[in-house]
Each structure stands twice: as C-alpha cells, then as structure tokens.
Design goal:
With 204 residues, the protein is mainly beta. It has a single domain, classed as Lipocalin (Beta Barrel), CATH 2.40.128. Strand 13 and strand 14 form a beta hairpin.
C-alpha cells in the first residue's frame, strides 16, 4: 500500500486501521468461572494454571493443571464433570494450529481439542494484530450435554480492505472491514468431545 507524503499523521493512521486494527487487553488477574448452580468453579491464574473446586461449606479442590494459554471463555457443567475453554485471552495470533476449543473431563484430563483451522473459515474471518475473530456466542444446552459455539466471518470481501485509495475512504473502510456476520453453529458432545454437527447460519 502506497501513502502520499502530504497525508497528515491522522489520515495515515486511519488508512492503516482499515487493514489491521490493534488490540487492547487489560492485564489478566486470577478469575473464577462458576457453573450455573455455582456448586463448582474453575479458577484460572495469570500463570496459566486452572483449578476446579467444589463450592460448598468447605471449598474442595478437585483437580489442577497447567494450560497452554489463558482462555477467553470458560464454561463448566453443574456437576463439574466437564469444563470447556474457548480461545485465548490475549489473542490466538492467527495460528491455524492453536487449540482454541478445549474440553476437559475427570481429573482435568483432556477429552478433546480443536484447532482454529478446524472451527473457523480462516479465509473469511476478520482480524486484528493479535487475533482472528471467529466466534460470537458460546453456551451449554440440552441439559448441558452440548457445547454450542456460533461462529462468524467477515461481512464484506476482505480484499477491499487493502485497496484504500483516498483519505476520505479510510475511516469508512475500517468500520466495514471489521463488520461480521453469522456463519456456523458448531455443536460438541461434551461426553465424547466430538464435533457432532455444523449448522449453516448464513442460510437462515
């Protein structure tokens, strides 16, 4: 992309923003993620350690393990038998093999993992400097038997983001390039960890 020298710093920044946007993350601090009935919770620390506790009159530790990265989302069943972790808190760095869906079972053992390339259309997603934005909603359904993730893709052709010709277009293009639209609904069987179905949301 060529920039003419008579563009001021503000205009240049806007044009660059149309291609890639930066991310702002607050420093992660130890956080607890509770089951719907609050009888169990997973505590994740800044040192990438996850620990499942039974929450009652006395808090009891069920298991603990180290994680590759701090998760962005954590969901757990009411009985504490399954824990699902989705994406990374500080971004997935557009790494196709990054394990962005992790399902843990008894003892914190891994039941299943899915890489970014397995759950997202990498050719169509929106992106910033540190992450590919591939999902918008995560939940447990069917009496917590299924983990459901609704994925997204870029709403507009990403190739247009690289062809900003006039300063007046930069801000508008930046907004257009970050716009998303629903893509698929992925359902994972928590008992087995298998990806049981993919529903096309774009055709709705």
């Amino acid at each position: 992309m060529k920039l003419r020298i008579y563009f001021g710093p503000t205009i240049i920044a806007l044009i660059l923003a149309a291609n890639v946007r930066g991310d702002l993350y607050s420093t992660f601090q130890t956080k607890r993620f509770y089951s719907a009935n609050r009888r169990h919770f997973v505590e994740v620390t800044e040192k990438k350690r996850a620990t499942l506790y039974r929450n009652g009159r006395r808090i009891q530790k069920a298991w603990t393990r180290l994680l590759r990265e701090i998760p962005a989302r954590v969901l757990l069943t009411e009985d504490g038998s399954r824990v699902a972790m989705v994406d990374f808190y500080y971004g997935n760095n557009h790494e196709p093999n990054a394990p962005v869906v992790l399902i843990l079972g008894e003892g914190g053992n891994e039941v299943a993992r899915y890489a970014l390339k397995n759950v997202a259309d990498l050719s169509r997603i929106t992106a910033t400097t540190s992450t590919s934005y591939w999902f918008q909603d995560v939940k447990l359904i069917q009496h917590e038997h299924l983990l459901v993730i609704e994925t997204i893709v870029a709403k507009h052709d990403r190739s247009k983001c690289r062809n900003v010709k006039a300063p007046a277009e930069a801000e508008t293009m930046a907004e257009l390039c970050m716009a998303t639209t629903p893509f698929e609904k992925l359902s994972f069987d928590l008992a087995t960890g298998k990806l049981s179905s993919r529903e096309n949301l774009a055709s709705r």
